[in-house]
User: Which sequence fits this backbone?
């Protein structure tokens, strides 16, 4: 498959996904007597619009590049087996994240998810346990404080903590 064709397929797929995300975000429950910006669907809809714009740009750029350079074969997706295994692990984490949230709640699951994700995506030579722990804990606390305490958006508590 040529680079042009794979970029166009990816761009169109992402555009379709952004439409689904936009529609799904409209179905999220809202609180009465609050502004639209504080509703739970506002931020996902904003991200869906951003994804749609970026996917259109991706398609347009791939068409423009193919006119200038002609068709070339796409580079292999994974250079070695380790990259493919890391890819599968990240996909596995993304699948397990919502399942873990039901069991252990948002805060603990988010911390574990972020820790494992940063650990996997950091080069072995640059991995520092205390930095990864700090980043994961910091992001989890900031998200919890902003959304749970300030915006008062309920988070899943999980079976273990309810």
Assistant:
């Amino acid at each position: 498959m040529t680079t042009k064709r794979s970029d166009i397929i990816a761009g169109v797929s992402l555009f379709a996904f952004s439409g689904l995300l936009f529609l799904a975000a409209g179905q999220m429950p809202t609180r009465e007597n609050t502004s639209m910006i504080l509703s739970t669907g506002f931020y996902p809809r904003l991200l869906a619009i951003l994804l749609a714009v970026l996917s259109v740009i991706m398609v347009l750029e791939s068409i423009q590049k193919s006119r200038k350079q002609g068709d070339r074969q796409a580079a292999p997706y994974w250079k070695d087996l380790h990259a493919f295994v890391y890819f599968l692990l990240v996909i596995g984490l993304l699948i397990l994240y919502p399942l873990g949230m039901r069991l252990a709640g948002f805060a603990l699951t988010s911390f574990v998810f972020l820790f494992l994700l940063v650990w996997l995506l950091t080069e072995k030579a640059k991995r520092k346990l205390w930095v990864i722990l700090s980043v994961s804990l910091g992001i989890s606390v900031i998200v919890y404080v902003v959304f749970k305490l300030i915006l008062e958006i309920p988070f899943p508590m999980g079976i273990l903590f309810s």
